[in-house]
């Protein structure tokens, strides 16, 4: 501390120019390269998506097709909308798009452990989740060790505007000066590390040029440790999957109550009104 700070009163506290060379630049470089390492580790461990069977894709796309119809119904003519809605209502009701026949009413759901394909999918999901956790956790712990080993206990900068005392715990982590009452605007190296860790997302996107959900998990270690991603969460063993019978039934009811209004209704009068004024 004595190498970087000439201590006096809080208003007269002056940082040595060595802080920029020995603390600021190395600390920013450590955080930057740590994020790049997480990025390339995530790309290396990422598996290409498996090819789904045709019946599974058809089942998923049927539900998406009905949702797209509800969202864009106003762009279809009344005859086309009614015909397409009637077709989807019948298909969703009789289960034409289901990959398996609908189970009888009152029957218990099938155990996914009895299906080798479902079990393999669950294990792949758990493995992928553990890899994402390792990508976010291991480099993060190594970076934290370096920061606490070489940069802890150092004042790094001062915020150019006054802050209330509640910000002292946030900006002055790792600093303990009983003989000096520091203002809340002073920032320690440990706090600067956390600020950089959560604020360099646009810099990573500029350097890497990839803003997909998987790469954003690699940039944010907290998301990686939580196993978060832009896709669906992996299915745990023993947990039932999506019940498309109920999803189809609910989507059919949504098609029944959709509020339809053709966007081209009265377009001639509206066009003439625009030029008349």
From TrEMBL:
Organism: Rhodotorula graminis (strain WP1)
Entry GO terms, CC: EMC complex
Region Disordered: start-end pairs: 99-119
Family according to the record: Belongs to the EMC3 family.
Pfam families for the chain: EMC3_TMCO1
Phylogenetic classification of the source organism: Eukaryota, Fungi, Dikarya, Basidiomycota, Pucciniomycotina
Protein name per its UniProtKB record: ER membrane protein complex subunit 3
Localization of this protein: Membrane
Biological processes per GO annotation: protein folding in endoplasmic reticulum
